[in-house]
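Listing S7. Sequence submitted for prediction.
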Amino acid sequence: MLNVGVFGTGQWAAETHAAAIAAHSGTRLAGVWGRNADKAGALGARFGVPAFTEVDELIEAVDAVAVALPPDIQADIATRAATAGRHLLLDKPVALRLADADRVLAATEQAGVASVVFFTNRFHGNVSAHLATAAALGGWCGARVTMHASIYQPGNPYGESHWRHEHGALWDIGPHALSLLVPVLGPVTRVAAMDGPRGLVDLLLAHSSGATSTVSLTLDAPAAAMAREAVLYGENGTDEVPHGDGTAVDAFGRAIDQLLAQVDSGARDHGCDVRFGRDVVAVLAAAETARTEARTVEL
C-alpha cells in the first residue's frame, strides 16, 4: 500500500486526485496540504485524513506526493519531494520555466524515484491504444489539433484560476495537444507561433520524423464555437484521435496503476514521466519566445 499525500485543495485536487487515490486499492490517502488552511482542513475532513500545515511534514509522512497546484508552486514541491525520495504524481505542465522543470528532472533522476505526469488523455485506455497503433503504422505527414475551450463561463471551476488567466491556453491546454502529437510524430524540433483574438494562440511545429503539425488553442472561445479534435494525416489517409472514454477519475486511477508498476518493478522509463514533462515545458517555452519575438525557434 502506497501512502500518498495530496498537495492542493481546488476542484482538480479534490474531485480527481484525492478521489482517485482514496478509491484505489493500491494507495492510501494519508494527508493533504493547501495554501489555504481552511480549505485544506475541509478537504481533509471530507476524506477523513489530517490536513498538514507544513509542506515538508506531509512529504515526510508519505511514500509519494500528488500535486494539483499552479505549475510554479508544483515545481518547488516536486523538487523537495523527489529529493526526499518520494515518488511523484504531477500535473501538467510540470513548471512554467524550463530551469524549474530541469530542477525537478534532476532531483527525480538523482533520487531514482518513480514519476508520472498526468496528461489526462494519455491515461484513457482508448486514446493510449489509438496513439500506439498510429505510431506503429507510421507514414504520417502531419496533424492538426484544435482545442477551443471556454472556461470563463459562469460556474466553470477553472475560470478563476489566476495562473490560467496569466499564462493562458498555451500553458494550460497546450500540454494536452503535445501529449497527443509527440508519441506519433516524434519530438518537436522547431516552433513558430502567432496570437489571435480571445486568447487564441496558433502553433506550427516541426517534428523529428519530418512531419509538421498545427495546434490552435484558446481558453476563451465563444460558447457556440467550442471545439476539440486531433487529426493525423498521411500515406494511409486521415485518422481522428478519439476522445477519452472515461472520467478524469478513471484516468487518474490508471496513472496510479502505472506509478505503482514503476515502484514495484524499479523501471524508470514511463512515457509520461518527468522527463517527458520537462520536454513539454521546453516546447512551451520555445513557443512563448516565438510568439513574443515573432520568429521561429529551434529546440
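Caption to Listing S7: primary sequence and predicted C-alpha cells for the chain studied. The mean pLDDT is 97. The longest strand covers residues 140-148.
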